[in-house]
Amino acid sequence: MKKILLLSFVLCVFFTSCTEKKSNEDFLQTESGLLYKFHESNEAEMPEPMNLLDVYLSCKVNDSIVIVPNNFMTMQLSDPMFQGDLFEGLKMMHKGDSASFIVRIDSTFYTLFQLPMLPPEFSLEDVMRFDVRLIDFYDKDEFIAKRIQIIKETFPAETESSEAELKSYLSDNGINVEPTSSGLYYIKTKDGNGEKPSAGTMVSVHYTGTLLDGTVFDSSIERNEPIQFILGVGQVIQGWDEGIQLMSKGEKGVLYIPYYLAYGDTGAGIIPPFATLKFEVELIDF
């Protein structure tokens, strides 16, 4: 059920012979201690927390050791995780800006890169710098709609076939329900208490997942262990992030999830590419 988060830093460290530390005398400093320098700055729009950012980003230590090579990536803007971290700097940027940020090396490895300790080849005296260009940003719904459109345009024949198969399945089984704007279908089978979770909430869910032909590919009920995850932050497939928010505590239902809200053109395990998934779900608690 788990999928790769939208931003997944791969820690690739490339050592070079140069060990000179870059001077930070031309950087300004925020009250929290973040050092920053803008190379290009304008008065365009600024992102808000939870927006999805399209950026070119790189990270180096001492201007010689590459931690993250310069790459285009999409990341979600969260609140700062410690005083003077990268996200404080990102919140200062406008669309089209480029800037450099010098952050605490130990806290960045602990939080952003999720390492238990500072790697032994580094010390607190080393200078960790992020170079960032903010290309664009979106609220989550706009980003999802854009992503779905791109996928459908990339695989028009597969999308037409998959959608026709789902509509035929629903018709053959007497299911008459309108999809959400994303294409997700949800059918309630048991009422809950009316209280619904919001994004950022830890939820506990029982489920059985099948293909439309009835093949079971996963079941928390068989394991007698519900899945727990934070809702709406990309820890599960998009169809779940959207569908579970439609439910209230104690509610049961069935989700029919198009391939572009699930495992896309690659599939996963026994789930083939372009597969529509059916999940019988119960929102146990949150």
Low-confidence stretches: 1-20
Oligomer: single chain
SS class: alpha+beta
Biggest sheet character: 6 strands, antiparallel
Biggest sheet, spatial arrangement of strands: 1-2-5-6-3-4
Q: Helix amount, in percent?
A: 10-25%
Strand content is 25-35%
From N to C, what is the helix and strand string?
EEEEHEHEHHEEEHEHEE
- How large is the count of helical segments? 6
Rg, please? 22 Å
Q: What is the 3D form?
A: elongated
- How confident is the prediction overall: mean pLDDT? 88
Number of strands: 12
Question: How many angstroms does the end-to-end distance come to?
Answer: 18 Å
Keywords:
six-stranded antiparallel β-sheet, 6 helices, alpha+beta, single chain, 286 residues
How would you sum up this structure, described in words?
- The chain is α+β, with helices and mostly antiparallel strands.
- It contains 6 helices and 12 strands.
- It has helices spanning about 85-90, 105-110, 140-155, 155-170, 220-225, 240-245, and strands at about 30, 35-40, 50-60, 65-75, 100-105, 130-140, 185-190, 200-210, 215-220, 225-230, 250-255, 275-285.
- The strands form 2 sheets. Strands 1-2-5-6-3-4 form a 6-stranded antiparallel β-sheet. Strands 7, 8, 9, 10, 11 and 12 form a 6-stranded antiparallel β-sheet that branches.
- Strand 3 (about 50-60) and strand 4 (about 65-75) form a beta hairpin.
- The protein starts with about 25 loop residues before the first strand and ends with a strand.
- Mean pLDDT is about 90; it is low at about 1-20.
